[in-house]
Amino acid sequence: MNHIRTLLLSCLLTGISCYATAQEARWELAADGGIRWTVKDSRPHTDHIEMSGKQLSAIITYGTNEQRELLLKKQLVFPMLRTIPNNTHASLKVDFTGSELPPVTVDGVLLRSIPVGFYLKGMLRIHSRSNTAVGVTDLLFPSVDKAGFIQLRELVNNGSRVCHVQVDSLVKEQHTAADKGVYGEYAIRSEVTGYGSFDLQPGETHSVAIIYSARKMSMPAYHFSPGYELGRREAFVQELMRNLVLETPDDTINRGFDFAKLRATESIYDTKAGLMHGPGGGAYYAAIWANDQAEYANPFFPFLGNLNGNESAANSFRLFATYMNPAFKPIPSSIIAEGDGYWNGAGDRGDQAMIAYGAARFALASGDTAMAQQLYPLINWCLQYLELHKRADGIITSDADELEGRFPAGKANLSTNALAYGAYQGAAYLAKALGYRDTAALYNKRATQLGRDMELFFGRRVQGFDTYRYYEENTVLRSWICLPLVMGLNQRRDATMKALLSPYLWTRNGILTAAGDHTFWDRSTLYAFRGLFFAGATDTTLKYLAYYTRQRLLGEHVPYPVEAWPEGDQRHLSGESALYCRVITEGLFGIVPTGLRSFDMCPRLPAAWNQMALRHIRAFGADMDITVKRLGGQWKVTVTNKGKTVLAKNWDGISLIPVLLPG
After folding, report:
1. What is the pTM of this model?
2. Are 493 and 529 in contact (CB under 8 A)?
3. pLDDT tens-digit profile of 539-593?
4. Strand-pair partners of 270
5. CATH of the domain at 379
6. Secondary structure of residue 17 in the 3-state scheme
7. What's the start-to-end Cα distance of the chain, in Å?
């Protein structure tokens, strides 16, 4: 354990300034599972959040302005209303800045909203006082499955006398040019319900709704019922909260996990090519990527068991498989425009390694033999492609990595090779589960050899740490040195742990992409947390994960993991939320699929916790609970499936625990 103590000392020395300079939490946990910001001072503050349904996504900018009044803007994205040219970014986007809101007067005075509190849990609720006796509550949310977004506005008379209220009728409709749309002309509409003139008694309320929608002109207008759409959204959120439930003594991490489940799952779009999980961010919709979907999100969905998530994952692999070819030209990095096109602008980014790794993990965790058989040819094709791109030294080449040239990656990078190693391992387990034992042995052999070759080629001393160079000419630390730890390659574990949490890479915003730069991407920070937990640096990693979660969930920009900075203004891309969840399932609980009904695990119970649990795990065709409790110097690990005990043992906290679920 000396290496862990040394690591802890190093992390405390290098990381303490990060904790000391942490932002004061603007938000706090609410008792009902949400988070709340109570406006306490006059300083303006704004933030933005993305919320999605199957037919649209909404990026809402909200907060207070210099006059302490409500600031509220909406950018609505309609992914299936395609614009010309029909490329990656060709979703119809419309900005609403407030002019569509109906004027409200109280006893002849124009009402102005002055927020006193904001609340988030799958929707945005804003409580405001006003310059009159009438208080205002705004509730904003997308329709679950229609191209509509709704703002419900409740007016309440907080005074002691009758107020006369006037809500103007306001309908705005704009049309796009027919030659700018793939499907011709589009109609974009905002309309008000609940308008009129009425007297409001003391304590009485009145509801108004502003409904935003868009459609093809060939389609009739749709009547939205705000109350019905609200009920559907609430039911969707609650269903996600009931599955894959994390129970730890850290309520902030539990809540961060709940919120990440939501963002990872809501961003699924019902395209003409089937359900497509999309990153979002105002730019990436009705399309799939080898990293965001195949590698990041898809292996997570079986654990949650969400029907839309699992279907979108299976559909993405079906779409990628249509690009298999006998000449072994690469599968495109992205299939775009509802399946009508593709993007391959950075060449081969290691996409075949991403797809094979994600497909093998998804197939195993699905627990479905038919699904596994369906994905098996795609996995084999991708692994054959990788074999064709091996050099004499055993290292796999690729044109770039998932950062697509933003940072140098050489001709052969650590990311592609680490993912390929994980793909060979997963494919070996899958081949064995399907009865292809010779193929399983071959893939295990290739994984072992690639691990050796990676150590020889990438293993180097970089900036004083015996860790990995990212590519041949690389001389500075890079964030993706965490990937060998994620894959269980621990030859350089101690030095890699220290490097990741050293001042060269760790900052108050997470892990830098490269030492000496200022750019951070949450995806590599989250991969690092997962790898650090998986490698056994439990207590140190918990400190950093707790800090990170507090910043993302309760800080200045909430409530989800983000894409990057400065790129994208820290957009709430959905794949990063899936990666946060995998920090818990595959990092903290150490779950590695080994078959359609089996997995290994090595849960990492922190010293400060006496127990933790993950309940209603839907992977492997199960409804499973895993609980870990401290018993003196050992741990008690219990696994139940549908209420029946599968495993109950005292554990040393070190060795792998194999779990086989009854068939």
Report:
1. 0.95
2. no
3. 999 999 999 999 999 999 999 999 999 988 899 999 999 999 999 999 999 999 9
4. 275
5. 1.50.10.10
6. helix
7. 39
